[in-house]
Amino acid sequence: MVDLISNLPDEILGKILSLVPTKVAASTSVLSKRWRNLLGLIDSLCFDESEEATSGSHRFFDFVDKTFALLSESPIIKKLSLSHIPTSGRDDDNSRVSRWIWTALERGLSELHLHATPRCHGVYLSRELFTSNTLVKLTLSGEYALEVDRVFLPALKSISLLSTWLDGPNYGRLLDGCPVLEDLLITETHRWALPCCASFVESASLRRLVITVKLSDTEDTTVFLKAPSLVFLDYSGYVTSVYDFVDLDMLVEAKLNLMLWDSSVYDEHHDDDYYDDGRPEGISADITRLVAGISNITTLHLSPESLELFHLCCESMPVFNNLLTLSIESDKAHGWQAMPLLLESCPNLHTLVIKGLVHRVTNRCGDACPCSPEEHKNKKRRTVKDEEESCCLSTCHVKVLEISEYGGSFQELKQMRHFLGKLECLQTVKVCVDADENNNNREVLQANLLSLPRLSSKCNIMFI
Asked: What's the CA gap between 136 and 134, in Å, rounded?
């Protein structure tokens, strides 16, 4: 086998070396003069220092230095990934990292991924590294940050900022210096992260934005988003009191995973009056402008808590004239209070996707579900005729209903009966039974669903 590999052309052996961990590849070069010469054909480098490494980064840095020396004749380096533990008392470490990056940039580097395990030392990159004409994809993670007065990356299309030490001014210069940026990923989930990147995004070229913020001290943060070319938004974070979403007319799809910074508010207001009175005390967040800013989308995905916050923290619901697909997730902890108004605000809705029918029973789910508490029914009795005339489902034009994680409980079967009996335009129902159900139960669940009456004569039930 060794002879077969050795007989391969140099170009193919170079590609093999690019797929092998750098430490192994460099060690191989010591064993064979031919393999050492082939290092010049490597175009992808990945250096990863393990958390368990003894003596920290001293030996690791020396190893990377030696490897780059062996690669001095390499004509091109397309990708460089570097993950390490910053060392204390070594002032030259930042300059060594900068030298490695600069060496790769001189050889046409297109992908750069940098991660430094947080140890409160910081790894700051210099200005010279951020004037590349070839860099297309950039990742900064952990303690990596910038100290620059100018950034110009004319080819950069993708940036990932993963809980970095990047401050506001340098972050702003980074975005301003990327005129063709299309994809931006921001996560701020660790205590060392500076909560600035996710609160301000302005880019004329940006098409895809993914933000994940899980820092509980951002309650009063203003979130500003201006991206006229944006087509996809995935936003996950604690709700705040001020959102300024402007120029999102091109937005097609949005995924929202919104959370209250203090989840105990739900428990403190667990009784029915909490829902009758609207927004409970203790909630200052307001997502009205966020919801209005995404009202031109055609596809909307909502987490269980996001759906409930549409009721608790949204003063007015806009009309989603272009919305064709609404996808929601449900769980036992959160209610469907926003469903009636949301469905009524989507006049052209075609597909309704629901992951899990079980949700928290409240007296504000209205006619979107049949599970209002008995106490509420006793307070306000309505005739069947009244319910039919006012039911939000009766005026809903949904043609496709997709249900996943269906367990066949009494509440779920009752909900399906409600949907099938109210949605008069329904043509296709796709049901995915919970994977935990055995085959015998599946047959029973399917039979129960198929026996339900359907308002629409064109309705066809499929099991997937």
From this structure: 6
Tokens of 194: 């500076």
| Non-local CB neighbours of 288 within 8 Å, separated by 6+ positions | 243, 313, 314, 315, 316
Do the beta carbons of residue 113 and residue 80 sit within 8 Å? yes
- In 248-348, which ranges are E strands? 253-259, 299-302, 325-329
Report d(CA 165, CA 141) in Å as an integer: 8
* 248 contacts 230 by C-beta, under 8 angstroms: yes
Q: Average pLDDT, whole number, for the chain?
A: 82
Tell me the per-residue pLDDT of 338-381, one tens digit each, with 9 for 90 and over. 999 999 999 999 999 999 999 988 776 767 888 755 544 444 44
What is the rounded distance in angstroms from the CA atom of residue 17 to the CA atom of residue 336?
A: 55
- pLDDT tens-digit map of 386-407: 444 467 888 899 999 999 999 9
Distances (CA, A) of 325 to 287, 352, 357, 436: 21, 6, 17, 28
Residue 352 has which token pair? 């309704």
Which of 413, 255, 394, 257 has its CA nearest to residue 327?
255
Interacting residues of 76 by C-beta distance below 8 A, sequence separation 6+? 43, 107, 108
* Listed residue (64, 73, 71) closest to 18, CA to CA: 71
For 336-365, b/e burial (b = at least 16 CB within 10 A) is bbbbbbbbbbbeebbbbbbbbbbbbbbbbb
Model's pTM, two decimal places? 0.86
Residue 200: φ, ψ to 5°:
-150, 115
Average pLDDT over residues 236-261: 92
Contact residues for 364 (Cβ-Cβ < 8 A; gap 6+): 275, 276, 311, 335, 337
* Rg of the chain taking only CA atoms, in angstroms: 28
Task: Take residue 282 and report the two structure tokens written for it.
Answer: 């203790």
Rounded to whole angstroms, the Cα distance separating 428 from 433 reads 16
- Record the tokens describing residue 426, joined without a space: 């329904």
Q: What does the alpha-carbon distance between residue 92 and residue 106 come to, in Å, rounded to a whole number?
A: 21
Written as six digits, the tokens of 247 are 């120029």
What angle, 0 to 180 degrees and rounded to 10, lies between the N-to-C axes of helices 439-450 and 410-422?
A: 30
Task: Kindly provide the residue ranges of all beta strands, DSSP E only, lying in 99-143, ordered along the sequence.
Answer: 111-116, 123-125, 137-142
**Which helix (H) or strand (E) is 3 found in, with range?**
helix 2-6
Is the separation of the CB atoms in 211 and 235 below 8 Å?
A: yes
Residue identified by tokens 């301000």 is: 200
Using 50, 70 and 90 to split pLDDT, how confident is the model at 278? low
Alpha carbon distance 445, 462 (integer Å): 12
Residue type, 293: G
Residue that the structure tokens 């490695």 belong to: 100
